[in-house]
Amino acid sequence: MTIQKERVGIIGSGNWGSAVAKIIGENVQKHPETFEYPVRQWVFEEDYKGQPLTKVINESHENPKYLPGIRLPNNVQAEPDLIKTCEDCTMLVFVLPHQFVRGVCDDLQGKVNPSVKAISLIKGLEIKPDQVTLFSQEIGRRLHLTHPVAALSGANIADEVAKERFCESTIGCTSAQAGELFHRLFATPYFRINVIGDPVGVELCGALKNVVAVAAGISDGLGYGDNTKAALIRIGLMEMRKFAKSFFGGVEDVTFFESCGVADLITTCAGGRNRRVAEAFAKTGKPIDVLEKEMLNGQKLQGTLTAMEVHQFLTHHQMTKAFPLFDAVYRVIYEKAPLDTIVRNL
Amino acid sequence: MTIQKERVGIIGSGNWGSAVAKIIGENVQKHPETFEYPVRQWVFEEDYKGQPLTKVINESHENPKYLPGIRLPNNVQAEPDLIKTCEDCTMLVFVLPHQFVRGVCDDLQGKVNPSVKAISLIKGLEIKPDQVTLFSQEIGRRLHLTHPVAALSGANIADEVAKERFCESTIGCTSAQAGELFHRLFATPYFRINVIGDPVGVELCGALKNVVAVAAGISDGLGYGDNTKAALIRIGLMEMRKFAKSFFGGVEDVTFFESCGVADLITTCAGGRNRRVAEAFAKTGKPIDVLEKEMLNGQKLQGTLTAMEVHQFLTHHQMTKAFPLFDAVYRVIYEKAPLDTIVRNL
């Protein structure tokens, strides 16, 4: 009897997707007994200086558009065809902006082996007034997968990971066997992985942290000191935990001690665009959409968006009072409440 | 039957002691049904511009030497006599440098009501190769107190607290009734107090955090990014928890989610002298004692001292390997190990 090796496909090729492709390509070569050599990466085809980006990547072994200066392993093959990328794959890594998830899943319907082991590195949630959708669950449902989809999240700035700076990340996976495979696929001496059994908690942390970062930015903008900021980070972490435990089953306290919890929150509240734009909001009084134009070339800020969605969701469940920090961020950003509301009624 | 009111004494009058005296004096006035109006504060008598410091404080209602520019409430009375300060007190607040604790306790032997409710705001531990001494327990033992001594610790930079900037703190107290009294004594709208049942965990956090701050400073000195620093803070928090649970009973996981745990650690690793000196150590290669002279006017750095004591203690218990970050800090500072040891073998 021969053991079938795992064939890995990566869906997405942005900054984070490219950093992850480097790690996956290297680990696949390190474990030939476990993985097949080639790793296909779906790259949304676009023009790069007059050439197709996939051609540039496959010839230069670098993604000059989204991760310039970082060499990608030879076994990572950029592939413009989504279906072809996933063909025969036994493991799929979803690492793309959340607004593309549904379209990609629709294109993949019936084309993916239902027993594939999938993991989501997608940041963000879809929050409707009456429900919260996790993209990992959305992927599993739309592709009719038999295993629950895992999630990876942590204090991981793509460029620092690509430069092999030491950091940690957390994988939430309900299957011990799949968890071990994902650990082999992602873990390196500089990219430390803890595998835990709580994918929901891992994924929720990755989205809710941005609301807390907005509070931290407002605190910075007001010139409050390290004490106040640390208090807001701590209270924010506790509201993230309360939110997760109030509306989802199986979320564990220890998850918030992991890289996806406390560590990612610290990083996001130290640097990070959400903190930065919120600081400018507090200092200049300019509306967020103006600052998005000025500071993010019109890109939407995730933290304020999530704050509004969370507010609508909590209002629907009549639970805004149970989350005073989330509520304060919403009221400061969208209801012109005084800035120091973020440290009131906590 | 008349209910006896609480008479509060404060032992210590440095920067933190003075900030705390302001809060206590105000809260005592807010709760006349609970506390007697006068609050005596023991001030080590010294000369201030030709006058006794106690006289200056009592006339100006300000401690110009240790907390200039902050008004102290009228009911706070600076008292040069330690015994007189504690006379008839039913509540005692110990807020002095740890090297003075034993001397003060010796002077107070037999002079303090054994049923007094005492709380320690003292930072640091006495770690000998074979045992760790908590100052709260040391105080209780030396004064033969009948109630366990409580502990207060949190992300509290004295000057920011004195300026009434929002922050949090944690009180560890095994008695619910005493805990409620301490809450009434310390809590304000800008100084938020959580009372928990784990005084040992609270006190340990306040000392061990400084070892982690040294690691954070070395990381900064090496130019590592936010990811790495957040990882070191998280791993440090987990080693603090492991140390507390390995060598002390009754320590709870949740304690490390409190202000004394994660929040104080974040503040200490963001600013703070331990981080700053360690950063200079990594950048200049100068020995710590030279940097102490240059940066701290010869004062000893707590974090490196604690790192050595912890190392001796762990060596005695043959458990250095179980605390790779604490061990790495010791080896980098005292054994000339390469700086990047702090991110190896974690």
What does this structure look like?
The structure is a homodimer of 346-residue chains. The mean pLDDT of chain A is 96. Chain A folds into 2 domains: 8-197, NAD(P)-binding Rossmann-like Domain (Rossmann fold); 203-344, Orthogonal Bundle (N-(1-d-carboxylethyl)-l-norvaline Dehydrogenase, domain 2). In chain A, helix 7 (176-186) links the parallel strand 11 (167-172) and strand 12. The longest helix of chain A is centred in the middle third of the chain and has 23 residues, at 199-221. The first copy, chain A, contains 14 helices and 12 strands. In chain A, the strands form 3 sheets. Chain A has an 8-stranded mixed sheet, sandwiched between helices. A two-stranded antiparallel ribbon of chain A has the order 3-4. Chain A has a two-stranded antiparallel ribbon with strand order 8-9. Chain A is an alpha/beta fold. Chain A has helices spanning 15-30, 53-60, 82-86, 101-108, 135-142, 158-162, 176-186, 199-221, 226-247, 259-270, 273-284, 288-296, 302-316, 324-334, and strands at 8-11, 39-42, 47-48, 51-52, 76-79, 91-94, 117-120, 126-128, 131-133, 150-153, 167-172, 191-196. Chain A is globular. The A-B interface holds A 155-157, 160-161, 165-168, 190, 192, 224-231, 233-235, 237-238, 253-254, 256-259, 262-264, 266-267, 270-271, 343, 346 and B 155-157, 160-161, 165-168, 190, 192, 224-231, 233-235, 237-238, 253-254, 256-259, 262-264, 266-267, 270-271, 343, 346.
